[in-house]
């Protein structure tokens, strides 16, 4: 693929390049980059864990909820004990508009549940 392919007006890089060539386009391009920074920064905002690192009962619950997650849904889990069910918290967000919103909501709800159950460990996002 040739370099000029990326600079076509129809490609995202080409639109950015076109915007950088004109003064008003530069301002619009800079605003676009600044607006995208919170989305990029939120990707590493929460600690993550894999489903295999969860206790068996949480793995079963997650496997049951996973088909309902859809495109943007996420689950978060926190636990102090691998055997005591009263020391485990799992929360999923399924009806959300974006992946970042789903991640924030799942961790928030899980942490609220963990506080209610007096679980010391903070919830982490479950990532496959």
Q: For the largest sheet, list the strands in their spatial order.
A: 1-4-2-3
Spatial gap, N to C terminus: 33 Å
User: Biggest β-sheet: count, sense, barrel?
Assistant: 4 strands, mixed
Number of domains: 2
E-strand count: 4
Name the poorly predicted regions. 1-7, 36-43
Shape: elongated
Structural category is alpha+beta
% residues in beta strands: 5-15%
Approximately how much helix is present in the residues? 40-55%
Q: Could you state the order of secondary-structure elements as H and E?
A: HHHEHEEHE
Radius of gyration from CA coordinates: 20 Å
What is the residue-mean pLDDT, rounded to a whole number?
80
Number of helical regions: 5
What do you see in this structure?
The chain has 128 residues and is of the alpha+beta class. It has two domains: 3-44, no CATH class; 48-126, no CATH class. It is 48% helix and 13% strand. It is built from five helices and four strands; from the N terminus they run H-H-H-E-H-E-E-H-E. It has helices spanning 3-6, 12-21, 23-41, 56-65, 99-116, and strands at 48-49, 74-79, 88-93, 124-126. The protein has a four-stranded mixed sheet with strand order 1-4-2-3. Strand 2 and strand 3 form a beta hairpin. Helix 2 (12-21) packs across helix 3 (23-41). It starts with a helix and ends with a strand.
